[in-house]
Amino acid sequence: MNCLICKRPFYKKRSFLDLFKEEKGYICDLCYKRYPIKITNEFFRLENYNCLVVSIFEYEYKINYNYFIEEYQKIYKRLANLNGSDVLFFDSVDLTNDLELLNIYANLLGNNIIILTFNLRK
Ligand SMILES: [Zn+2]
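Above: the input record for the complex with zinc ion. Below: its predicted structure, written as tokens.
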């Protein structure tokens, strides 16, 4: 198969046990190294509720982040099961501009919120 990001052909190593298991990853090891997933948490207090911003990448890359949907889903499922907070997804969060927006979301939902994002700009 070809890597969705760099388009180079690559092969996934398989063992006897997962030989017939369907693989969903379509990104080569080199691209995983080039665009490493580094999950960071930023916690802050809004007007009436708490907000946790979980970002997946440390830097902003010029790639289609949808290729990381598998990883995103795993993180989302983990967060959704975490506690009673509402989990929202934003492509990117800019703390200097989006704080008021996050405040409005939390007040609308009447709950603490967890924002899952690819990039957090500070
Ligand atoms: Zn690649």
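Notes for the reader.
The pocket of zinc ion is lined by residues 3, 5-6, 8, 27-28, 30-31 (CB under 6 Å).
The chain has two domains: 1-34, 36-121.
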